[in-house]
Write a sequence for this structure.
């Protein structure tokens, strides 16, 4: 089955700096890679996603890049703000079952 | 975006009790999922459904059971709760283009 590795597990940045979270996946058949933000006591919220036919996608301060050859994808947050503090999960979707395999999460702390 | 509703949001129950966590969605999506997540940890798929009368076990073994009698509802049941079942349970549904959306979760504490 699919295996998704995510790092770092914790990340602390100063407000205004950029944050980068990286994930690798094992199944070359995976074709959809979403990123979720989870705040305390809430369910994961989809913030951006990318499909295997695209190399990069951007939405305001958030961008995701995908390298299919190397089987890794990354989340980039620019101009970080305190409200960006949360746990971020990457995931990979494989097969017709549409089953998501999640990374282990990155706790992002944006300090003033 | 999908509308997914989970109830109860928080539940504290005694060992041995039977509980059902409700999940409903209003978009008519066929695929639905249950994930289990300990605080701050990764999500593990425990059940999924392709549609009415379809249920499958996920990657993580769970003593819970699910049913899918109606498209809108995908309830999860624990016949006899134990402290080891204490966790957060997240329901999700798949919209067009295989985008997966989560509900707010049900926090279960078994004492």
């Amino acid at each position: 089955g699919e295996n998704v590795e995510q790092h770092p597990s914790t990340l602390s940045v100063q407000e205004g700096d950029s944050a980068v979270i990286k994930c690798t996946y094992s199944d070359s058949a995976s074709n959809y890679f979403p990123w979720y933000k989870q705040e305390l006591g809430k369910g994961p919220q989809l913030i951006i996603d990318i499909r295997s036919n695209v190399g990069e996608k951007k939405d305001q301060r958030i961008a995701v890049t995908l390298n299919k050859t190397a089987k890794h994808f990354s989340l980039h947050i620019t101009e970080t703000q305190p409200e960006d503090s949360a746990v971020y999960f990457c995931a990979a979707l494989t097969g017709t079952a549409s089953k998501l395999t999640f990374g282990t999460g990155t706790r992002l702390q944006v300090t003033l | 975006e999908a509308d997914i509703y989970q109830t109860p949001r928080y539940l504290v129950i005694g060992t041995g009790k039977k509980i059902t966590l409700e999940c409903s969605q209003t978009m008519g999506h066929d695929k639905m999922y249950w994930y289990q997540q300990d605080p701050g940890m990764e999500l593990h798929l425990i059940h999924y459904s392709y549609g009415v009368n379809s249920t499958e076990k996920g990657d993580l073994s769970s003593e819970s059971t699910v049913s899918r009698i109606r498209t809108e509802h995908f309830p999860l049941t624990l016949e006899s709760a134990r402290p080891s079942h204490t966790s957060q349970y997240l329901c999700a549904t798949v919209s067009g283009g295989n985008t997966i959306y989560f509900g707010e979760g049900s926090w279960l504490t078994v004492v």
Summary: Chain A has no helices and eleven strands. The two ends of chain A are 41 Å apart (CA to CA).
